[in-house]
Amino acid sequence: VGMGRTLVELFYDVLSPYSWLGFEVLCRYQHIWNIDLRFRPAFLGGIMQATGNKPPAMLPKRAEYMLKDIKRMAKYYQVPVKISEDDFLRVLGTSNLGAMRFITAMDMTQPRYLEPLSREFWIRFWSQREDISQPENILAVARQAGLSSELSQKLLEMISSPAVKNRLKETTEEAIKYGAFGVPAVVAHFKEEPQLFFGSDRLELLGSIIGE
User: Fold this and answer.
1) Catalytic residue among 16, 19, 118, 200
2) Which of 24, 30, 125, 208 has the greatest number of CB atoms lying within 10 Å of its CB?
């Protein structure tokens, strides 16, 4: 961390539309605020299970609100999230473990590609409404993000390795240790005290606490 810069960790999962919104806003502010932004790919399923949380859409009134909320936020932040009622089932029916392990493998190999790679997963799933669970879909996302086929192939092989599985598990456990019960979970290390902010609508508060 640079002189007087605040380390801000963003724990996210590409299955979460709110994670995409929070990710884009923090990507924009990382050059304006005095922060070092660190991307921390985590597994939402593991966080939910450990904390007894349930998908928001399980509550019909909340699902109804979420449809409106995400549309408003997408427009406000100019992020091309598209959401409709069938997305709730689509999320429940999608295995995102391979995608999150692939992103984790990237984090372990060439972290500078994390931003474009993660973004392409969200675009594919939430903008183009396509599958991200199969190896060929994952390779298509990697290609869109500008990765060479050699690197993509290497990362795809890494996703079944104990090192990558453990790293994703550890990152997920770290998020839980900070108090996360869902994503995005943003942790600001300010004045020696890690502060957790949940969701993509607490970023003004984050700014104010770190003096921005």
Assistant:
1) 16
2) 125
Which tens digit of pLDDT belongs to each residue from 177-187?
Answer: 999 999 999 99
Say if strands 35-41 and 193-198 run parallel, antiparallel, or are unpaired.
unpaired
Q: What is the mean pLDDT of residues 111-125?
A: 97
Ordered by where they begin, the domains of the chain are 6-210 (3.40.30.10)
- Residue 160 catalytic? no
pLDDT value, residue 191: 84
Degrees (nearest 5) of the Cα angle 209, 211, 212?
105
Q: At 97, is the pLDDT very low, low, confident or very high (cuts 50, 70, 90)?
A: very high
Distance CA 70, CA 72 (A): 5
For residues 118 and 198, what is the distance between their CA atoms, to the nearest angstrom?
19
Where would I find the H helices in the chain?
Answer: 17-29, 44-51, 60-77, 86-92, 97-109, 114-122, 135-144, 149-158, 162-177, 203-209
Closest CA to 103 of 12, 196, 198, 185: 12
| 92 token code pair | 């429940």
